[in-house]
């Protein structure tokens, strides 16, 4: 794959976290999604989401038929609806060619849940302990510009329907970053997954780069910035 490039910054939509849930100043948690990912528009109203996904399908499948594009758009719509129901504030997919003429795919889901993060280190330690109970997880902790991050890497099997309507097993590799944003009362979880095991190390690197971009600003304060080059590299290396 080509080297990831940063796309537009993403912020938590105000309607996801209304004032009665977060009574303090409005949250401003920002991140930069790698440009290769196409948003499924989980933050959009249903009608606007359908139009957005039709545009995405037309862009990705520009060489296909109208039937193929409409079918893919419907599939993307189902994925987005499921992600939204599960509380995702961002859901996206990647479909790209590789330097050795393969096709690689991945999904990215970002969730934000209310949590007491006044002591982010304590929250991170509790998350690390909980995730470590599952022997299938490889769990470690790294520092990031926004605060402590717990990373869990695991493999799983998913059951999917093949083109003949039969059930098939699909092996997935997944990496999740749990970020208890200090002082924001918000736990941000970023998960990237792929069935392309050969490409998984690159996707983990993408996730590391994404985590490095997360910043939390309060109104009336100087906007935070990500760490400069050498320090950012240390975070990426910590992901392994």
Task: Describe, in plain words, how this protein is organized in 3D.
This protein has 240 residues and is α+β, with helices and mostly antiparallel strands. The protein has 2 domains: 31-93, no CATH class; 98-219, 3-Layer(aba) Sandwich (Protein Transport Mog1p, Chain A). It is 30% helix and 36% strand. The protein has 5 helices and 10 strands; from the N terminus they run βββααββαββββαβα. It has helices at residues 46-60, 66-85, 120-132, 200-212, 229-238, and strands at residues 6-11, 28-34, 38-39, 88-97, 103-114, 138-144, 147-161, 167-181, 186-194, 215-217. The chain has a 7-stranded antiparallel sheet with strand order 3-4-5-9-8-7-6, with helices on both faces. A 3-stranded antiparallel sheet has the order 1-2-10. Helix 1 packs across helix 2 (66-85) and helix 4 packs across helix 5 (229-238). It starts with 5 loop residues before the first strand and ends with a helix. The model is unreliable at 1-9, 11-26 and 226-236 (pLDDT under 50).
Poorly predicted segments? 1-9, 11-26, 226-236
Total number of β-strand segments? 10
Question: Whole-number radius of gyration?
Answer: 18 Å
Mean pLDDT: 76
What's the shape?
Answer: globular
Q: In whole angstroms, how far apart are the ends?
A: 18 Å
Q: Give the biggest beta sheet.
A: 7 strands, antiparallel
Structural class: alpha+beta
Individual helix count: 5
CATH topology of the largest domain: Protein Transport Mog1p, Chain A
**β-sheet strand percentage:** 35-45%
CATH architecture of the largest domain: 3-Layer(aba) Sandwich
Give the helices and strands as they follow along the chain. EEEHHEEHEEEEHEH
Q: Provide the domain count.
A: 2
Broad CATH class of the largest domain: Alpha Beta
How are the strands of the biggest sheet laid out side by side? Answer: 3-4-5-9-8-7-6
The helicity comes to 25-40%
